[in-house]
Amino acid sequence: MSGNTFGHTFCVTNFGESHGPAIGCVIDGCPPGMALSEADIQPDLDRRRPGTSRFVTQRNEPDQVQILSGVYEGKTTGTPIALLIQNTDQRSKDYGNILQSFRPGHADYSYWHKYGIRDPRGGGRSSARLTAPMVAAGAVAKKWLAETYGTVFRGCMTQIGEVPIGFESWAHVHENPFFAPLADTSALETYMDALRKSGDSCGAKIRVTASGMPVGLGEPLFDKLDADIAFAMMGINAVKGVEIGAGFASVAHRGSMHGDGLSPQGFAANNAGGVLGGISTGQDLEVSIAIKPTSSILIPRDTINTAGEAAEVITKGRHDPCVGIRATPIAEAMLALVVMDHALRHRAQCGDVQVNPGPIPGQMPGHHPGQMPA
């Protein structure tokens, strides 16, 4: 199976299955000389890992990362960095009833038709468990970008199911299991408790940003920064839509509103989401993703089996009623991997990232994409 390596200069090859002995990745292209240890990576894995609240899957994986290569005396050597995460809490017997049938909305059907064989245990290779190695690789990229350019990545949930989530402060995101920028998440807890008891699932919308961005990243025509961001986000399990900046709200804009005005003080708005012509402007990257409802649910559904006969399927086991709850650190990681890859590609071609920064990059305080500045 090809298609398991992400990036061109900062390359991440992902391996493993949901119920195999381990999962992990190999990072090739990390610059040498950066201090790196498991302690730099583990916090992001802890944010993503299962079993952290009653609102997510109760599979209890510690997700402890091991660095197997590419680091000597605490610093990266420039050689491949191998990261390993053991699977310790598999329960494969839960999937015995779907060995010969396909879960609606899941990759079972397409994997079986493509390869002629599939691993039904937790979805095998198609499982969201395989996002853990990408979060680990993203932590390495985040560290290098923070030390080199001061770039910071943040994310939050902006909608769960049909419930919109307002923005109060980034400070609240780390204080609740939803990654919601709210002080009070009791309404979300009530909503999710009812959903979980019903045996059903829901989708979510996630916002992820990168601030302190260098100017000039992106390679038009076909390796534009925003194009690669969309590519990366669509590579996350269950993502069905990506918006950059104002996104689909741009349809209702007039040109007089949508274009981000420039002044000596910077940009008046950020409807472009930090990218013009496929190249970073130095403004915050603003990305939103739509995540579909979890396919593995307890409600009976019509399907077919491998013989093409009508069947009914109920998915037992431990599943997220909303996979979007744990998606925030995944989206942050994928955005960081895109920026890291483009930063190294830009340095190889153009040298200094901010040769001609132009006007002071920024945006008016309190402005979000899709809104007119005050």
Could you write a compact summary of the structure shown?
With 374 residues, this protein is α+β, with helices and mostly antiparallel strands.
How would you explain this protein's 3D organization?
The protein is an alpha+beta fold and 374 residues long. It has one domain (5-350): Chorismate synthase, AroC fold. It is built from seven helices and 18 strands. The strands form six sheets. A five-stranded antiparallel sheet has the order 1-2-3-7-4, with helices on one face. It has a five-stranded antiparallel sheet with strand order 9-8-10-16-11. Strands 5-6 form a two-stranded antiparallel sheet. The longest helix has 23 residues, at 328-350. The radius of gyration is 21 Å and the shape is globular.
**What is the radius of gyration?**
21 Å
Briefly note the structural class of the backbone.
Answer: alpha+beta
Ends apart, CA distance between termini: 51 Å
Instruction: Give helix % range.
Output: 10-25%
Observed structural traits:
Chorismate synthase, AroC fold; five-stranded antiparallel β-sheet; 23% helix; 374 residues; globular; 7 helices; alpha+beta
Please give the structural blueprint.
Elements lengths: L4 E2 L4 E6 L5 E7 L9 H11 L16 E3 L3 E2 L2 E2 L4 E6 L21 H8 L16 H18 L2 E9 L2 E2 L21 H13 L5 E8 L13 H10 L4 E6 L10 H4 L3 E2 L2 E2 L7 E2 L2 E2 L4 E7 L9 E4 L5 E4 L14 H23 L24
Antiparallel strand pairs: 1-2, 2-3, 3-7, 4-7, 5-6, 8-9, 8-10, 10-16, 11-16, 12-13, 14-15, 17-18
Helix pairs in contact: 1-3, 3-7, 5-7
